[in-house]
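Notes from hallway chat w/ T.B., transcribed later so I don't forget. T.B. wanted the structure written out for a chain they're using in a teaching module, and asked if we could keep both sequence and structure tokens in one place. Agreed to drop them here.
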Amino acid sequence: MAAGFTMLEAGMVRAKNTTEILTKNVGLYSIAVIMYMLIGWNIMYESNGGILGFLPTIQFLLPATEPVTAEMARAGEADFSYFADFFFQVVFVATAMSIVSGAVAERMKLWSFFIFAVVLTGFIYPIQGMWSWGGGFLDELGYADFAGSGIVHMAGAAAALAGVIVLGARKGKYGPGGQVRAIPGANMPLAALGTLILWLGWFGFNGGSELSVSSADAANAVATVFMNTNLAAAGGVVAALILARALFGKADLTMALNGAIAGLVSITAGPDTPSPLLAATIGGVGGVLVVFSIVALDKLRIDDPVGAISAHGTAGIWGILAVLLSNEDATVTGQLAGIAAIFGFVFLSSLLVWTILRFTMGIRASEEDEQRGLDVGECGMEAYPDFTTGRSK
């Protein structure tokens, strides 16, 4: 998943910002792992599940040794490794932060981004995750989200939207009369590769959320999740391609790539219950929604270079609601409560953090750095020196 997001974003930004986006993705993943180890995991899974249930029982660090022993497993007291569960869950929190990276690309200060990553991965994400996967009030309301259309993807998109609003658009993206100016990415092969890596990684993301393959029933359930995840991604690509052809007269690759991501996000809340045809349809609807959402956000002057807010946010909301089509245990009340609570909390808390950063250390790169590229201004090196400066080896 980390490799997929990194390559997708590196392909969708301009050449002069490539090293910086690579640094952000490697850095945010590492920050997520450390912060989840320090406090995030304990907030999400070792608190009492209240609105802020970690406050009276706050604790830091994972246990020094694996808590689940062989004797416990043989006695039927545990059927998984504690540390394996941590390792699996930490990828989810890193994914949420990766969504933010693409949306604020090409104009944000690197170290301000890293500080926000500390707050999101250590506190904001785990708090809302506690409400559902940690046995909190959303779980009690019946909110159903198998692998995180809302808990991971919509949450990341909400944080990204808040950041983009505070940060503003890239220079030259919008004209004085409201014109939307395309700013093409530098490397479409890399963007396509990143999308296909994400497509592959999603089998672990969704399939792994079954949490077991130790019985025939569990193995069959994982196979169903794999199949439906794959069908939804394919449905998203086809639907986005057809709609882009109808709207723009061309087969837009960037829309197709976002269609794949939107299809994957759409099925993530419930890949275990739909029929194959329904799974493809859910992904197809996600592919349609992401195209309209990207166009609509541009008209609102919300500049998202990679379409992350649409692919993860708009499709994430659809995915939460799509659970109702096949999961008899899901309720309209529970799903709507999940959307409102997760989006509202993550958006408002992120807006507060972004605003504090803006008025303290600042979040926007200087106009000079934005013009010449963040590779030089933030990292002191270029990803494609021959291409961007004309120097020869």
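Follow-up for T.B.: The chain is about 70% helix and 0% strand. Might be a good example for the class.
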